[in-house]
Amino acid sequence: MAIRVSISKLCRGCMSVLENPENSCPYCGFDKSNYPVDKKKLRVDFILKGKYLVGNAINATPYENTYIAWNLNEDNRVVVKEF
């Protein structure tokens, strides 16, 4: 049986597993407490289709937004594109 990652321990900027998720991420510097809300993008921690935990937007154009995300079913990091 595979060990599941606790989503509370995931950095929302790079989806790395953190020892202390209260601090900024030592890998990418993401700090959820300083993350600006943008009504044109999915919010951090949004669960998409009951399957993907949405993280930071890693690219944005007038036509699409790209997000780092966590596949809750397969327990791995993925990219989600919103058109």
Q: How does this structure look, described?
A:
By secondary structure, the chain is an all-beta fold. It contains no helices and 4 strands. Strands 1-2-3-4 form a 4-stranded antiparallel sheet, with no helix packed on it.
Instruction: Report low-confidence residues grouped into runs of 5 or more.
Output: none
Name the structural class: mainly beta
Q: Give the helix proportion (percent range).
A: under 10%
Overall pLDDT, averaged? 93
The SSE order reads EEEE
The gyration radius over C-alpha positions equals 13 Å
Shape: globular
The main sheet comes to: 4 strands, antiparallel
Assess the beta-strand content as a share of residues.
25-35%
Distance between the termini: 36 Å
Number of strands: 4
- Neighbour order of strands in the largest sheet: 1-2-3-4
Task: Set out the fold topology.
Layout: E1 47-48, E2 52-60, E3 65-71, E4 76-82
Antiparallel strand pairs: 1-2, 2-3, 3-4
